[in-house]
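Reply to dn_fold:

You asked what the input looked like. This is it:
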Amino acid sequence: MSAVALPLVAVATLGAGPLEAGMLAAASWLPWLLIGLPAGAWVDRLPRRPVMLACDAVSCTLFLSIPVAAWCGVLVIGHLLAVAFLSGISAVFFQTASYAYLPGLLPPDELARGNARLVGGESAANIAGPGVAGLLAQAASAVAGVLADAASFLVSAVLLTRIRTAEAPRPRADRTGLRREIADGLRFVAKDPYLRVLTAVGATGNLALTGYQSVLVVFLVRVVGVSPGAVGFLIAGMSAGGVIGAFGATRVTRRFGTAHGLLLCQLGTAPFGLLIPLAGPGWRLSFAVAGGAVVIAGVTAGNVIKGSFRQAYVPSHLLGRVIVSMQFLNYGTIPLSALAAGALGAALGVRPTIWITTGLLAVSGLILLIGPLRRRPDLPVRPEDETRPFTSFE
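and this is what came back:
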């Protein structure tokens, strides 16, 4: 919801343009570059559920501060940037802990189904969230959508408290220095041919995705002429592809295998992003919804496949660090892309910027053809010997 609620406040309430929208998107992802790597090592040292609960509490408080500031008449763009940045720090810890937490709740053969349900739930929230934000913006104000966003973190915390499975703490004797632990995660990713290519395609894909998503609200409101309330529903329609992708991922992998299924999800859906800049008033809005929905379906299905592979393949004591090492590189391109898209939008216009970024997205999946995925139908499973330090370069 925050991906829509914050830009709506910036554009509809504070009169922000594409540059400010890009800065807002960059601020929310910058923490992955600044603290992503040590966060993975810290998460591997700590019980994961308490970390997630603390992050929910922090995020709820941060988002509550926006409507309070607005009602007091002191809300400025700097406040939104600060909330985006600080909640981004919270998101780093929450996401890293949540991905590392799931393998402790499910057996390896249930990870794909568990990830599909988890990502499906996230996608459903991505459908409902923008719609709620848009409805509240239409009925009350854009700031009211942020209030609902704050409430969502409270709901998350309550649901987490209902999980009763005990975590197995990592023995202190296994712990080394923080730098050594960070280096272990990076080295594992760098030397593994599968993780290496998945990281490269993720970084390139995020560069393109963020490019158009960071200026999408400005494009719909300022260029196409969509009302703030309708923006939420349009983005909810795009997000519907996430539910299809999440629950269709297991069917794709059963039919084609995990490796070839991933290739299909990435290469077969990304070109549909080129429909988005064709959007215009009236029936032409369907171009944006259809293109965005197909792209999100492919990205989500790919994330389910990649996440399940990674959770089963990587030794449990390294999982948090490997996850955050990949996300550090994947998400590290996002703030740069958001700033670049904002600057391009201000210089060239928003529609040309979306043409450029969706064009990059259309070809980003070709990186997968460089690695070993095209030579085998299925991704490998984790070797039984978890003491194996690293796989070698091919």
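Residues 319-348 form the longest helix (30 residues).
Hope that clears it up.
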